[in-house]
């Protein structure tokens, strides 16, 4: 999307607030015209003081009153203009944020799998800010700037075309001096932003990995790497600020020289009676008013460029294809019986890298299935397909004999309870976290679910009990406790089928026993898929699927698979027999 298309699109958002925009233009015109009438009145006032003893006090009083009124009106409309542009900018960004959030919710999971979270967050926060700043500054500065330049030029031409010529010659000089400096400083600012980004990333990594940093005694190296980046940022920051600080004084110098030249030429013109002293005063003020917006517009251009780049990043997400919507006649899956059929399923994340090549299986209600296999074997992929986070390339997956592609995604997912290794809790009370899948749950139901999940006793010991607030990342809860809460969450919804991912990381023995008990209780009577890491879970499963390179290469009970002496037996012998 090029710059023009981007701005057209951005303005269609702002265009919804056309009424405000029209009022903003009217306010800009009035405030600028008031600021231009001011110097004319000042000139006229000066001309009322013709010489010693020849001062027209009555006229001066009248002119000064009018001048005061004009300036008050100008300020009032200037203030209204700022408020209106604020409103347009914030409403536009409000709409874009809403649309982006909505979009992130309906994008296929492949988007989230393939894009770093930080990048999506940055589009949400930094890019939105850049757009809002661009609109805010761009709109008012460009509008008032352009009207001021045109207005001041007209008034200057009216007073003295010759002096106007001098101003017109100096304006480009001032503009190019400013541009020369800002181009250099912008380049440095960009480099500074890149270094800053790197530094942020580094600090984020180091804070996130503090445990590992300390465990591997990486602190000193980490500090010296930080020091290097910090030093680079300091140097670049100083240089960019140095260049940035040159722009204003340099252009002011050019403007002051012009001002002096005009003053000299103007004084001669006054002596020669071609202009009055008052007109010269007006002209000098106009020449200042004329030069000012050039600098401001140059400054705003950078902001507009950054707003353009940010809008493009936002629009590129908004333009992505959302998840294929449900079929118009898609069925609502009520309470499933729990029969699942995979029939000749083929799937690949990337067309040129086939993963699941031909998978068929019939799972009867209440079957406990353990999925085992090396890392990257495709265990999570199987889950992704069951939940329709991804759709199969060919073949079908059926639930109670119905193709899952013919079922609404919401009702399909409601039939599965999922407990993953990476627990997800959000910033709310423990009660709200448990009730996340059933908003209207009563307190009794929440407590009952927590009890079934063996979470009640630890929750009760917390000072605030069920009202304990969870901070974003789980706060002070242990990993095992977090998992118990997610189990309680699933218990509350009471789905007919389950997908569980057993934690591989070490959890204290007592919590681990609790989790196992909770898992066992949850699994009772339900069709369940467990990505299994514990021997007990695997042994107790009705069916073990051994996956390798995306395919199920062996399936059967523990005894059957051991007896066949294949991959599973090898895994069992290498991992579990020594325990
Ligand atoms: N979103 C994705 N896009 C592309 N390739 C992917 C994606 N997710 C997984 N893969 C690839 O598919 C293969 C199977 O991955 P999967 O996550 O299913 O393995 P897994 O058995 O669950 O592994 P682990 O035990 O480590 O979690 C891997 O080679 C992985 O790199």
UniProtKB/TrEMBL annotation:
Any one Pfam family here would be ABC_tran
Quote the SMART domains the UniProt record gives: AAA
Report if keyword GTP-binding is assigned: no
Spans traversing the lipid bilayer: 21-43, 63-82, 138-159, 165-182, 253-272
- The protein's superkingdom reads Bacteria
Q: Where is the ABC transporter domain?
A: 340-574
Ranges of residues in domain ABC transmembrane type-1: 22-306
Instruction: Please give, as recorded in its UniProt entry, the membrane topology of this protein.
Output: Multi-pass membrane protein
The record's subcellular locations are: Cell membrane
Principal localization? Answer: membrane
Q: Which UniProt keywords apply?
A: ATP-binding, Membrane, Nucleotide-binding, Transmembrane, Transmembrane helix
Record's Gene3D superfamilies? ABC transporter type 1, transmembrane domain, P-loop containing nucleotide triphosphate hydrolases
InterPro entries listed in its UniProt record:
AAA+_ATPase, ABC1_TM_dom, ABC1_TM_sf, ABC_transporter-like_ATP-bd, P-loop_NTPase, Type_1_exporter
Molecular function GO terms recorded: ATP binding
Q: Does the keyword Endoplasmic reticulum apply?
A: no
Under which name does UniProt file this protein?
Answer: ATP-binding cassette, subfamily B
Q: Which organism is it from?
A: Paenibacillus macquariensis
